[in-house]
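Before a computer can learn anything about folding, someone has to put a protein's shape into writing. The three-dimensional part falls to structure tokens, numbers that each stand for a local backbone shape. The protein below has been through that process, and both of its lines are reproduced in full.
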Amino acid sequence: MSIIEAVTCMLETYLEQTAINNSPKTSSLFFSKKVPNISISSYLSRLKQYMKCSEECYILALIYIDRITSKHRSFTINTLCIHRLILTSVMVSAKFAEDTFYKNSYYAKVGGIPCSEMNMLEHQFLMMIEFELFVSDAEFNSYSTTLISHFGLSQNELTADTIKNDQGMVKEGVASNV
């Protein structure tokens, strides 16, 4: 199982836990009017293909999402917000942890939203997480261990893609309705 598949499983677990009450408890920029026509797995694969960020960024993205849900108990992760939340979380983690990252206009294009919306999502995300982007080694290792133990990843799989990851330019693609 790849890191993207493990992260997908983890995010789908979030959705299953909130499926009983699928209506949002609070309003947020992250909530779309309708459920996007792309699966979480396909969306994460798209982000991986075009964002070219390390595997660690996806683990950081999970940590950031957990921080938001623990700080804002009324924020419900559901099918109306998960795609925007993933996009923003991965983008913020790439900007924080990577040596090379792209402009918001590029991330917006990859994610299928307007740049102005990407900017607003980033701002709201950072406010919700209270700008706490640093992750200790212990916390990061705890999440890595969870992915390894629950989803059958080996430590080699967790780091192999990171070593192979190249930060070259990518062909731009466009998603829609996310």
Notes: Residues 155-178 have pLDDT under 50 and may be disordered. The radius of gyration is 15 Å. The CA atoms of residues 35 and 80 lie 5 Å apart. The first helix runs from residue 3 to 18.
